[in-house]
Amino acid sequence: xxxxxxxxxxxxxxxxxxxxxxxxxxxxxxxxxxxxxxxxxxxxxxxxxxxxxxxxxxxxxxxxxxxxxxxxxxxxxxxxxxxxxxxxxxxxxxxxxxxxxxxxxxxxxxxxxxxxxxxxxxxxxxxxxxxxxx
Length: 134
Fold this sequence. Notes:
Number of strands: 3
Order of helices and strands: HHEHHEE
CATH superfamily of one domain: Winged helix-like DNA-binding domain superfamily/Winged helix DNA-binding domain
Radius of gyration: 46 Å
């Protein structure tokens, strides 16, 4: 029995020696490839040019003709209309419902115009919803 164990150990010793030789060869190959990689540094991959975009094709729509005012006159804006109505209002001022009716402006449009006129100092608001000339 002892002789069998000795033979197996000798065979394992040979196999280990063969494996050690293979590992040494692989290590040498790795060193060679590393050295060649250092000598010849690879160029970074070239960037591909972005594909050219085709210009968007627009449908041929006719543009609405711009409204022209006669020479020497100024276009009347929503601010001008609202301010003119408030200037003609009685001393106690005018409420938003009446302003809507007179100017034809609705909701946020009228609110924005009134806010802008207040900021410019042209009108004041003595009570909520009532506006008069400053």
